[in-house]
Amino acid sequence: MIFSLGIIVILVASFFSLYRVVKGPSFFDRVLAVNLIGTKVVVLLVLVDFLYNRPEFIDISIAYALINFIGTIAILKLKEKGRLD
Amino acid sequence: MKGHIVLKMATRMMVPFILMFSLYVLAHGEISPGGGFQGGVIFASGFILYGMVFGVEEIYRKIKRKILIFMTAFGVMIYSGVGYITMFNGGLFLEYAKLPGLNMKSGNSMGLLFIEIGVFITVSSVMLLLFIEVSKKYDN
């Protein structure tokens, strides 16, 4: 029960972040909002893990957090310098 | 990148754990999501993060380019080598039970692990080479 409620709250909050992605005035607002959605997805995966009792989802959430971090750094570096190295 | 002290320290702390997690994904590929390809991509992403923050030349100081190109073929050699070893022992191609010194049960586990190590080596080096080439040629 509490896990289902948590999933619903996380989904609603991520739709608020999606509004900021679409509407955001500057580039950095959009990057920050996408990063925020990624962080919410990590929590969502852990909640799905506890809801369905499948411990493999912890690994997927760790990998997702990693990809989120690296992707954000790559996009910001590409914006700042124009190249990736 | 000059400055950026927080980013550099965070990268220095995160990269060993990323590499360790990739080995965990590789070793637990049979009983949990993951395997050779996913572990290789995570292993390469650790080096890609290092290269993005400290510069691509720092990757070349860790791994020479010739070794990197050699590793792309070495993984394929491990993969097909396991297959040919089973053929020489009288089985089919990649019939793990015919590996030398192993029976049906342990041969399946060990054969699958060898195959995934080969995929891991190839995928991680190819991903790293792709990142190096793309980042070098991006400027107009």
Give a verbal description of the structure.
The complex is a heterodimer of chains A (85) and B (140). Chain A is an all-alpha fold and 85 residues long. Chain A has one domain (2-81). Chain A has helices at 2-23, 27-52, 57-81. The longest helix of chain A has 26 residues, at 27-52. The mean pLDDT of chain A is 91. Chain B has 140 residues and is mainly α. Chain B has one domain. Chain B has helices spanning 5-27, 36-54, 56-62, 65-88, 104-136. In chain B, helix 2 (36-54) packs across helix 3, helix 2 runs parallel beside helix 5 (104-136) and helix 4 (65-88) packs antiparallel against helix 5. Chain B is elongated. The model of chain B has no long low-confidence stretch (mean pLDDT 88). The chains are: A mainly alpha (85), B mainly alpha (140). The A-B interface holds A 56, 59-60, 62-63, 66-67, 69-70, 73-74, 77, 82-85 and B 1, 7, 14, 18, 21, 25, 28, 32-34, 38, 42, 45, 48-49, 51-53, 55-56, 131-132, 134-136, 138-139.
Break the fold down into its secondary structure elements and pairings.
The complex is a heterodimer of chains A (85) and B (140).
Chain A: H1 2-23, H2 27-52, H3 57-81
Helix pairs in contact in A: 1-2, 2-3
Chain B: H1 5-27, H2 36-54, H3 56-62, H4 65-88, H5 104-136
